[in-house]
Structure formats: C-alpha cells, structure tokens
Design a protein that fits this description.
Elements lengths: L10 H14 L3 H14 L8 H9 L23
C-alpha cells in the first residue's frame, strides 16, 4: 500500500472530513481514503456540469417560467477627466 501526504489542506475541508468521519464511525484517514476512492471510481459519464446538476435536482418539480424584466437603454459610461 502507498502513502500520501497532503500539505496545505484547507482548514474547512479538514473539518468537514473530520465531521463526516465521526458521522460514519471511521477515522479521518479511512474517510479520506474512501472519499478519494469514490472520486476516482466515479465514471466520467456521471460527472455533470453545474447547470445540468441544478436541472436534475429540480426536474421533479416541473418546469418554471420566469418573466424577464424589460431591458432599458444602457447608461453612458463615466468619464474620468
């Protein structure tokens, strides 16, 4: 088995891994291993962009029609004299 040291890990990420590990009854090291394995094993076909992910999340609620406000003329740019 190989070892990996991760430097400059954001404190927020470390805290979330710690909480997630506690919730699952695992050590932080085991939780990090599982997260890395899951990330690597996710097929590229399942990876989606942000817009597609949002659409999937709210698709069950049906379509939404939003009224866009009327656009007015652009204001003149400021002059810096």
């Amino acid at each position: 088995m190989a070892s990996l040291t991760i430097r400059k890990l954001d404190d927020r990420v470390k805290a979330k891994i710690r909480l997630r590990a506690a919730r699952h009854g695992r050590s932080m090291e085991e939780e990090a291993r599982r997260l890395l394995t899951l990330a690597i094993d996710t097929p590229a076909s399942e990876e989606v962009g942000l817009g597609s992910a949002i659409r999937r999340r709210f698709a069950a609620h049906g379509g939404f029609k939003l009224e866009l406000p009327q656009r007015g003329p652009m204001r003149e740019p400021p002059t810096f004299k």
